[in-house]
## 1
Amino acid sequence: MQFENSLTFAQQYDLNDPLNNFRDQFFIPELNGKPTIYFTGNSLGLQPKTIPQALNQELEDWKNLGVEGHFHGKNPWFSYHHFLTENSALIVGAKPHEVVVMNQLTTNLHLLFISFYRPTQKRYKIIMESAAFPSDMYMVESQIKLHGLNPEDAIVEIKPRENEFHLRQEDIDATIELHKEELALVFFSGVQYYTGQVFNIKAITEKAHQCGALAGFDLAHAAGNIELKLNDWGVDFAAWCSYKYLNSGPGSVGGVFINEKYADDNSLPRLAGWWGHNEKDRFKMLKGFIPEYGAAGWQLSNAPIFSMAVHKASLEIFAAAGMTNIIQKGTQLNAYLVFVIKEAMKLNSKLVLQIITPPAPERSCQLSLLTDDNGKSLFEHLTKNGVIADWRNPNVIRMAPVPLYNSFEDIFQFGTILQSF
Ligand SMILES: *Cc1c(COP(=O)(O)O)cnc(C)c1O
């Protein structure tokens, strides 16, 4: 496809886009009465217009039915998580009994580590990317300490080579190989939050398994953004949040994948709660925990219905749009964004920007740009002109044109604002 830096080209591209009409299903924040160019769906996705109605349904059932809503509401609360399972499975490439929606991301990672990080005297190391998301670093360190081990000794971080920004798969493989005698777990993100690098989950999992370790993933920036086939790839466990690409609102409920090979493995330790107990007997209040089959057996508490209702409505949009369309458009939006940035740089020598996100297939819709000393004032120029992007210290601008609600016109408009710096 030959791109052009013109409004008519961008508008024509939008007309041919099979997801074009999805933008109308979202509230787009405005600045001075004009829709913003919202490029931070990787941080907090926008609100679908179906949300107020979805929430209101639950408020009405609570108002009118009280406790009876557990069984007689329109969407009975007792088994509410079932309404989200199938659509979640579609997003991460899992079988329905391998996923459950519950809690929040960091909490879920802790629960998964309790089951899947089982250090022995010989095998206790965890390999992870350097500069992982802080919550993941804190989580891993505290899990290691929980076992009486020293994080400095147990964590092996993989760093980019000098003057490079992303990790090479060959270096990941070599590190796994190097530590294979002591390795318990390889724990990676699916998409690196800072650089936007898409990791090869399949290759990492295969290598970990070859070396006798398990492989787990934090899919915060991957779920709803890239192709995932967790079941096919043999991933052991994964977790994600729902408020980034999955548009389910600030702090909303998270999702978990547990490979079906553990579905009825009751030898795994786990932290138990009544919502994970065999559903038929859950309200019998019996002694003796019997886990529900599959990921659902890791639930702890009553489902947080208001978060779940938002997530349910949002997942329905993903099911309607289809992950294949979403991924394809994400790639095109990203490519057009790169084109428009390069055009702007040709026309304005003040723009000094370096793309640090590796090229496809290690790229999603997200683009991270390293700026020079003018970076902060460039970012302020963008913000003042209605571009909502994201600044990461010391000097990176992250942008994610999101397939469900960003348009090619957004990108063209962004280009003119960039040029005018
Ligand atoms: C966003 C994000 C989190 C946030 O965790 P919460 O528990 O939802 O606050 C954790 N890890 C990664 C990699 C993230 O991108």
## 2
Amino acid sequence: MESNESYDELAAWDRTHVWHAFTQMQEYEPLIIERAQGCTLIDVHGRRYLDGVSSLWCNVHGHRHPKLDAAIRAQLDKVAHVTSLGLSNPTTIRLAKRLCDLAPRGLEHVFFSDSGATAVEVALKMAFQYWRQCDEPRPRKSQYIALDAAYHGDTLGSVSVGGVARFHEMFRPLLFDVLRLPAPDAYRLPAGISREDAAQHYLQQLARLLNEHADQVAALVIEPLVQCAAGMVMHPAGYLRGVRELTRKHNVLLIADEVAVGMGRTGRMFACEQEDVSPDFLCLAKGLTGGYMPVAATLTTDEVWKAFLGDYASSRTFFHGHTFGGNPLGCAAALATLDVFEEEQTLANLQPKMARLAEHLARIAAHPHVGQVRQCGMLGAIDLVADKGARTPFPWEEKRGLRVCEHALTQGVWIRPLGNVLVLMPPLAISLAEIDQLCAATAAGIHATLGEHRSSKQ
Ligand SMILES: *Cc1c(COP(=O)(O)O)cnc(C)c1O
């Protein structure tokens, strides 16, 4: 350790003064990371842990990437912060142009903020204001459609469209009402619905909702392909495209929240590309800066942008802003992140890694308490169940997922569960050997806490 305090002091201050996110502080045990390198986190004692969740979706190219480190240092020699309220700077401008060039067609304008939640708030408010200012105003369109178990961040607007009961229910009196759709879960399907019919089934529910309510709906908000915080609920193929077709037909704007699934996670730069979808809003954060800096972006179309143009007195301005939106240090990190995607051919090199992850998951799937394994690109999920046939989860109070992760930590691997679902989402830069280590520690954790199982494949 570099400074003078002892580990015990640091740990005591951490327990007392740092209020950790989504953490029961009464039970909190400090794990204090001092340094990192590549896919490895290093704690104050020098112990090393493989970062199995990219520091929660963030570090796509790993930690301490020389290119990212250098980009931030170079920007620091120019200017660290320039407000976006009426001023600009070359780095922020370049990032906006670069994102518009990369994004699905039609997304031409970028509003910068500083977190995933704010990126979603911006889209929600823009959609609302758009219907008041577009050529044929439809001021009745003031509601939103969102999915059950959705997660879009923790500010009140994003919690309103969120639907994770365990996190959100308590705040219900503070939230606005939302039209809800069932989560299009391809694993826990409703009785009588086959896998083949799943997309159609869920799309018919949307069609009914739109037939009845479209004239009150400003926008539909969705996490494309995978509802992550819900427990990596994966949508049936074709669902996203169907949502785009129906929303377009019914004149409802589509907000794609790619805060988690964007930036290469699904194997393409943006998840919407997997179904050739262009949303009206694309929300990015987390991995946008390679996990280095809090930068978020809300991209939108010319159609939306034009509705906000007018002279000052028209009050068509978007009266919304975040002090650090478009911060040059963060934008420098984001530009470098995009450079590394190109120079290292990150997406092309993902193919063998995805295949290796799939092999490991297939073996893990044989365990009697693994109900299903799911994969979307470099995102793996292991659904732990009390009863495999009935697909019943363990009671959440039993913290089964957490126990597996605690065991993995003893093997030098850091992962974090979503209730009963184990999640593997390492940096895209991970090596095949590190994937083996990650999956071996996860499998060992499952065996140690849920019972040994030897499948014929092992
Ligand atoms: C994490 C997340 C958010 C919130 O991002 P913050 O930066 O934590 O505010 C929003 N949407 C999705 C899908 C997320 O995974």
## 3
Amino acid sequence: MKKITSTDTLRIQRIAPGQYQTEKFPVLTYGPTPRIDIKEWKLEIFGEVERKIVLDWDQFMNLPKVEVLADFHCVTTWSRLDNRWEGVQFNELVKLAGVKPSTKFVMQHCYGGYTTNLPLDVMMDEDVLLACRHDGEALPADHGGPVRVIVPKRYAWKSAKWIRGIELMANDREGFWERNGYSNSADQWNEERYWEEK
Ligand SMILES: Nc1nc2c(c(=O)[nH]1)N[C@H]1C(S)=C(S)[C@@H](COP(=O)(O)O)O[C@H]1N2
Ligand SMILES: [Mo]
């Protein structure tokens, strides 16, 4: 399996400003944890694509996997270092659908209704993946299993749990927390936490 190290983990100061390191892995969810039966699970890639695709669990699991070593920074100030995520790279996944040149933004859609948005160039980074395993174990439901998105270079609310849809978009739209006071850009190195600090 291809191994990727997020370049953020190579920084001399790995804890982003205003964050503290925790060895624990807190659960942060708005609302209840959706329970998704693997037999019912589907992942849809749609919007500004050459062809909309829908993958079931077996099709997703048959895609080539990578392991990404990355740190995880929650806006509530905890950071968990050295996570080993296993899954499918975002940039490989969207190739299956064919990204139209008009695509500039991505909306992540979740089981349970949560959404979050980012520019396409941020999502195309080699350390962005749809993860089904964490530190050698199947991803637990409360951490977003069966599959979640991981975007190491942005605050963790940009890493959608229970991913169900990837929407490629020509124009930007705000996701759940972005509409409710969080920064649109969410760069932890620049402390882009909330609207007023943009
Ligand atoms: N679907 C969904 N994804 C989500 C959230 C959520 O409430 N629902 N919370 C976000 C926030 S604020 C954080 S910090 C991380 C937390 O991931 P964890 O619970 O695995 O630590 O998930 C993000 N992804
Ligand atoms: Mo968070």
## 4
Amino acid sequence: MGRATGSTARYLGFLFPMAFLLYVNHAWLPVGATTQELLRGFTATPDPTASSFQPLLHNPNGTFSLGFLRNGSSQLALAIVHVPSSEPVWLANPTRWARWSKPTELFFNGSLVLSDPHTGVLWSTRTDGDRLLILDNGNLQIQKLDGSGSVLWQSFDSPSDTLLENQNFTVQMYLVSSNGLYSMRLGDDFIGLYAEFKAGLDQVYWRHRAMEERGHIVDGNGSIYARISPNGFLGMYQTETAPIDVQAFKTFQRPISGIRRVRLESDGNLRGYYWYDSKWVSDFEAIDEECELPNACGSYGLCLPGGGCRCLDNRREYSSGGCFPQESGDFCNVRGENDAINYWVLRRAGVELPFKELMGFEQMGSLEECESSCKSNCSCWGTVFHNVSGFCYAVDYPISTLVSFGDGSKIGYFKVRKIKEEKKRGVGVAGGVALLVGAVLIFVGVAGFGTYRMWRRKKTGHGIFMEEQGLSHDSYRELLRSSSFGAVELCKR
Ligand SMILES: *[C@@H]1O[C@H](CO)[C@@H](O)[C@H](O)[C@H]1NC(C)=O
Ligand SMILES: *[C@@H]1O[C@H](CO)[C@@H](O)[C@H](O)[C@H]1NC(C)=O
Ligand SMILES: *[C@@H]1O[C@H](CO)[C@@H](O)[C@H](O)[C@H]1NC(C)=O
Ligand SMILES: *[C@@H]1O[C@H](CO)[C@@H](O)[C@H](O)[C@H]1NC(C)=O
């Protein structure tokens, strides 16, 4: 089972925000135009006239449809969509999109295969089945037709960002947010949400341990699994007899006629929804404080509890997406240079890590000791020191959002990579040069105008009055001075 790890997947993920999926057109082909079962020999290619979704197969009651989902004008994913809402609930190839054009082909030869003659097989179930169908719960299955009806493959076993009601989520599975940044997996006794802030490093930012109120985890009874119950909760189980944990939704134990789903969203939250009155209503949120999201205000952002975003660096205006460019990697092995050349240090008091209780720390005697442990470690991006407890938290991934925390006893130390800054400085110098050139032009203009006026004064005799209104020689010298001063200011920034 492929999981979207590695930076390629991450950056590919960036390019395909879920947003486009919201624009999926409701006006599809009638469900009757497709079929409820596909057999060996089936092939399909993308239809250039299909605006957003091209259905190929649907379940008996028509709620779910498998087909080609468009991303922009040229990209294609094989998807299962909840028909009434047009919401995709499963993608075969979330990190490797195909092209919406003829050479892309879907066929079923025992395996369901998405291929393109240029890149070859993009995605395959690698099975030897006889038929393909979608069950009423939204599960796409490849079955054998030898009387046993055995299931060789099912989409429920390789979810993308969504879990549907009654879908078992096991320790072998992952949910990955559509932007590829966040994932959900199970541990021995917990559900964890992880952020891949740095390639190969998964930082846990939310963890829910089994309460073991009704059932207990028994060694040797197998791994745990999770499932959304029609009764309105996310349950953890070890056996079917009783859940070992129940995370109740707002509609806990309330009969709901529509289906339920949870999705790991692009902001890193896990949200639950139920289908009611022709829309999805949210009834569960793993993280309910915005500042506790893994990266609420972007890189080097500062989240104010209940009050939006700022920049860690007070001088910068906050804009969504963060205050400094999103970084990757660390400061190790940068062309053999001294680390200190590659970054400058940003300090800020009154900040807190958003999920510090899930991060490691060391007790240290002083702020200086805490900071220097990071300074001398090229894989460290920053620290937050609590001067009352002496706890020193090291951040070993590029700095994301911090949380504003009233008193000044928590002091942040953050490395900011220089390379990008130098480019900015280059722009600053260019701006300064432009200003100087502008000033010279004004000088030439004013001098020219002065000459013209002198010529006119000679002609008209109204010179003295006009001289007072216009720019004197001293004024444009002042203008020139203030312009070059501005350029110096820009250079310093
Ligand atoms: C189905 O097609 C794929 C891709 O061409 C191929 O690798 C696979 O062997 C085929 N499977 C069967 C059962 O023929
Ligand atoms: C989920 O797992 C349970 C226990 O193994 C099983 O009885 C049930 O059929 C599974 N459900 C699905 C949809 O696979
Ligand atoms: C450097 O920092 C990383 C991440 O914080 C840590 O795992 C590692 O042990 C540190 N190395 C040293 C030599 O302190
Ligand atoms: C912690 O830092 C704050 C702000 O700098 C300071 O006022 C306070 O005295 C410090 N406390 C200790 C125990 O050093």
